What does this fold into?
Amino acid sequence: MITGWEPATVLFATLAQHLDEYTGRIKAEELTISSDGITVSMSVTGSLTDVRFEPRLRGRLPAAEVADLVLAAIKRAELVAAQRRTDIAEELESTWRSR
It folds into this structure.
């Protein structure tokens, strides 16, 4: 736990440890969002890792409509990833405060 009376080197070391813990957690998690025949996988860092289409979409919908579905799925995944980053930060913050 940081009290505010530590030397600067201890504060910086503690901060670096916490940031490493946070980045390790967000790099380790991936999420998958499926909707309207589109499945998007994204790391919690926000990097898109995969997009898949259900076979039923091929030839049944105009390409522009499929593109809109893909963009909508990516936007949903980005929102979920952002919320997950917030959740992880809050979890770790409560842990850090109790140390």
